[in-house]
UniProtKB/TrEMBL annotation:
Source taxonomy: Eukaryota, Viridiplantae, Streptophyta, Embryophyta, Tracheophyta
Pfam families hit by this protein: PPR, PPR_2
GO process annotations (BP): RNA modification; system development
PROSITE patterns: PPR (PS51375)
Designated name of the protein: Pentacotripeptide-repeat region of PRORP domain-containing protein
PPR repeats: 5-39, 67-101, 195-229
Gene Ontology terms, MF aspect: RNA binding
Signal peptide: 1-19
Record carries keyword Cell wall biogenesis/degradation: no
InterPro entries (alphabetical): PPR_At4g14850-like_plant (IPR046960), PPR_rpt (IPR002885), TPR-like_helical_dom_sf (IPR011990)
């Protein structure tokens, strides 16, 4: 390019920022003779994604102008790196909100350790949203589940007729986490087209509630139904076999991973298999497999 203009520099900056290369994004940003709002938001987003909280604050304060994208970047940074009081202060300070803003706050409430505060504030925020969506309902279900209020999660879930896979998976996990396996199974069976995540969630629901035979049966049914298991499927079922001491079945599942599905075992899968072998007393086999662990 014979002459680099603002648009060209900004495209390069945003590309580096989007790929997570903060060092190159920062180099481009410093080389720019002029910067528009898109460039400022690009370096702000890259710094937030990299977890440089102090840098995010400095950039935000230095910006000659800000838009909703800028504020949402700041909100996302605060949601990861500070307490809820500061996050709420930023949210109240914002000149406007969109679905990203609301979703960031709901996600933060769903992950806080203050269960009573989580339930009350998340509910107030959800009710205050000008437009609710399946995405916000999913976050609300997760928030109630985290607080231990499965009935409230169910109430939010049942408000929506076109629930879709994501919301259904969140509710299935909520039921599973509190031992309501039959309720989780009803959600699973109600879905006409289950993706691998929903299958894995139901397999996990059985496994973590002491019903390994049903988890293993569902794993096999998943493949027969035309939905190939993925890495998470194998990690879940092998971990279940390890927990219940079903060593031979765990070995068969691990062999099936490569022989039947042509999947490469990851570090997580190797770790699950090493744990299974150690629990079964196969220490030499565990050491041999540990030597093959991907770096």
């Amino acid at each position: 390019m014979p002459e680099w203009n603002l648009v060209a520099w900004t495209i390069l900056l945003v590309a580096y920022a989007g790929s997570g290369d903060l060092q190159e994004a920062d180099r481009v940003f410093r080389s720019m003779q002029e910067r528009d709002l898109v460039a400022w938001n690009g370096i702000l987003s890259a710094s937030a994604t990299a977890g440089h909280f102090a840098r995010v604050q400095n950039i935000f304060q230095s910006m000659p102008e800000r838009d909703l994208v800028s504020w949402n970047c700041m909100l996302a940074a605060y949601s990861r790196d500070t307490n809820m009081q500061d996050l709420e202060r930023i949210f109240r300070t914002m000149p406007a909100w969109n679905m990203v803003s609301w979703a960031t706050m709901l996600a933060a409430y769903s992950q806080t350790g203050d269960l009573l505060s989580c339930k009350c504030k998340a509910k107030h925020l959800y009710d205050s949203m000008p437009v609710q969506s399946v995405a916000s309902a999913t976050l609300m279900v997760a928030a109630y589940s985290h607080c231990g209020n499965v009935e409230a999660a169910r109430w939010v879930f049942e408000e929506w007729s076109g629930r879709g896979l994501v919301l259904s998976t969140a509710m299935l996990r909520a039921y599973s986490g509190y031992g309501s396996v039959e309720a989780a199974r009803k959600i699973f069976e109600a879905m006409q087209d289950c993706d691998v995540i929903l299958w894995n969630s139901m397999i996990l629901a059985y496994a973590q509630n002491g019903r390994l035979p049903e988890a293993m049966g569902l794993f096999r049914l998943m493949n027969l139904g035309g939905r190939a298991p993925d890495e998470s499927s194998f990690v879940t079922i092998i971990a279940g076999c390890s927990h219940f001491g079903v060593i031979d079945d765990g070995k068969r599942f691990f062999l099936s991973l490569q022989q039947d599905f042509h999947l490469q075992a990851s570090k997580i899968l190797y770790s699950a298999m090493v744990d299974l072998l150690q629990r079964g007393g196969y220490l030499a086999d565990a050491q041999e497999l540990l030597a093959k662990l991907p770096l």
